[in-house]
Amino acid sequence: MRKPIIAGNWKMYKTAKESSDFVKQLQEKLKNVQDREIVVCPVSLAIPAVVDALQFSNIQVGAQDGHWENEGAFTGNVSPSMLKEVGVKYIVLGHSERRQYDGETDERVNRKLKNVLKNGLRAIVCVGETLQEREAGKMEQVLETQLTGCFTDIGLGDLTSIVIAYEPVWAIGTGKNATPEQANEVHLFIRKFIEKKYNVEAAQAIRIQYGGSVKPENIKQLMGQPDIDGALVGGASLKTDSFCAIVQF
Ligand code: 13P
User: Using a 6 Å CB cutoff, which residues line ligand 1?
Assistant: First the structure.
């Protein structure tokens, strides 16, 4: 049985103060939730304040990226070991916004993933096609390339520390979500990839989140699909009411 995982990706929203105020409210409303994992991913600057506000909480803290090295001359970056020291449990890798604006590649995601795992942290690895790729009939090819690149030399034993997020780029921040059936079809394709590369048990065990315009209005139908195990939520994770409704779908 795969435990549902709902994560809020706050992107470059909320200052440290706003973030810690926000999670105090969240914590109050979600403190009795036991049957699903809840993760919030603030900007890295806000992480210490959020971890502090969430002591003894059932809400875990994630980061939005983490470098492939633990230290070095990499101006502007933060490493998984540094994030771990301040209490981070999950690191999001390969988000389409990083691919689009920050030169993220599958090869880099793969190197980052190895370092996240080396540090004993968990990763949320994002994949997804653009509208152009989907319309050109290249969706499966694009996902296969992304997955192959991201999972190069990742061992079977590491899969328990990895969550995959399927985020169709055309559904992010657009209000246009994939239909539950459309999303499930892709999740099944991703699960088959894991089955081919690893084995059927690993494919059945790995959790695959859907991301892209998830809202309180569509979460139930999405989570009702057999291969959707959670959500990576952007806009709707920034308000307590909508995020709590999504977590408690
Ligand atoms: P929205 O929920 O705002 O579409 O963003 C999705 C996303 O990018 C989560 O990582």
Answer: 9, 95, 167, 172-173, 211-214, 232-236
